[in-house]
């Protein structure tokens, strides 16, 4: 048997910038080295607790649960609706560059720490200290000790009192922030139909059936007998489909064509050969789980996309990427090319990760000479 | 659940292990140090220094007094857990890839690597579970693996058998007393090495993980495959949870293959399967690299995973985890409850 205590912290913090009366309230920070979950494990608190209970420090199995609790930056009444939550004590202070010019020698006098016992049994501790920037930091903590008993294996309890050794020998009680931190909350709910939820592609019966169907079929062009769909044939415009010579192959090829079209479209929808717009292709089919082009970019893309015109026919996507990469991270380069000849059509779209980079690039690259032509760069208009 | 991140290592984790009470977690990595952590809040208790090479393996005796570690500096070392003091060093011709204490802690086995003309061996050392006792230099037993080297090994119940997993995907059973080979059964796909072997709490069956993307539950007595858990990625580790009938698998693309695979993510997730129904019930993400090792808390309250990214993550389960039951399990539970009430009223 041993006793443990849960604490309540209410923290108010005021930074006094040297030679100014401005009180700065730092923005609340979540995670990082100021992770609030450590408040109940901060060295002073822990020591206090051990001395009070003299058995072991903390047996709360989920010590970090409380780190989602909001940061309170004003002194508040200590009555708490949730007596077991632990409010944070972000003791460390973020360095603010705005304070740099005010860095001067300050008096190191600090007011003595105060300890007030409140009527409701909680304790208020006000402490002052200097942070790394020489600023005075006032930390107000409201603490209430709630003792709850928990049965712990005596061997485990004994081990909790062991002194630290090795690289941890200088660490105080409680987790050291340089080795232990708290990750983002993970929602893990076991579910027996987990696989169905995740839409596993290999288990999709439609896709599997289509794959089986196409396994021993070969794609054959009706125009040139090449290994591509007739619609993709480079000689589509210049040659007529092979007549008598290809007639025998025709039947098999067209069947393959149709099957292929169906696999591209709604697989197994039953409407063979009917046109499926690209946006709907893959619905329920093999590509359902895959990414769709443009879907990743969406609206955001239009804001940081440049249209580049008067591009040389010889231009390559990589060249454009290299040119525009100088201004920031380029997420996408699209250079329109003629399908038959492979030459550039003379315009391109460049998407930046950041709009400000796009603005810079637009200003700099408009009128830039590239391969004997003068580029025209403007923001892309929203697609109709 | 909010995982606790332990960043005590600078290189990839190789093994993590809970002690029997589940309050301490030991971790070893390729950066030559051993860390011990309090499992409930992630506080580091200490580190053990002395190894001169990557540490491949670690084990803790059942009373949590002595720690054994095996390293690429060709040694097995014993440590006093409480203080970090080095107690004993055994030298071997090659690296030590796995150590494990027997159920009572009186014996320690070590698996040595096949290299430089030396065959892979399994050595057994007698251990005195006392930090002040003089440990014997002599090896109690040496088993030479002539066909395929052993990658992992462990002691069955009552130290009756030594079970070894091999590089060629087979599992062997040796007599625990004299080291005779009793069985060698191809369990996993040929030439897909077995990467991990962890025991159930009573050591009557164990789980293996293999690069052939499956994990299997096998009995210790006759090496019968009870269950198979298929995954879609090479597995590095597998463990059996207490309290709930689950198994946890860890794996992911090998670090060297990550850049060459097209997968949007490298599948660096811990996978939970139901131990009996063999179906996957969920995944936990978080690591940036493949999971090299997973370990389940013997009290069933948490599990930890160590990754190629150098982090150990301890996860304390939420209520939803403990409440989860299959329909048949729930029915059975209800029936049992009813019976109990009837006996009480009668």
TrEMBL record, chain A:
Residue ranges with Polar residues bias: 37-54
Keyword entries, A-Z: Cytoplasm, Initiation factor, Protein biosynthesis, RNA-binding
Domain of life per record: Eukaryota
Transmembrane segments: none
Region annotated Disordered, chain positions: 20-119
Bias kind Acidic residues: ranges: 98-107
Composition-biased stretches (Basic and acidic residues): 73-82
A GO MF label: translation initiation factor activity
Keyword Transferase in annotation: no
Subcellular location: Cytoplasm
Primary localisation category: cytoplasm
InterPro entries the UniProt entry points to: eIF3_g (IPR017334), eIF3g_N (IPR024675), eIF3G_RRM (IPR034240), Nucleotide-bd_a/b_plait_sf (IPR012677), RBD_domain_sf (IPR035979), RRM_dom (IPR000504)
RRM domain sequence ranges: 304-382
Function as written in the Swiss-Prot or TrEMBL entry: RNA-binding component of the eukaryotic translation initiation factor 3 (eIF-3) complex, which is involved in protein synthesis of a specialized repertoire of mRNAs and, together with other initiation factors, stimulates binding of mRNA and methionyl-tRNAi to the 40S ribosome. The eIF-3 complex specifically targets and initiates translation of a subset of mRNAs involved in cell proliferation. This subunit can bind 18S rRNA.
Record family assignment: Belongs to the eIF-3 subunit G family.
Subunit-structure text: Component of the eukaryotic translation initiation factor 3 (eIF-3) complex.
Protein name as it appears in the record: Eukaryotic translation initiation factor 3 subunit G
Annotated organism of origin: Neurospora intermedia
Organism lineage: Eukaryota, Fungi, Dikarya, Ascomycota, Pezizomycotina
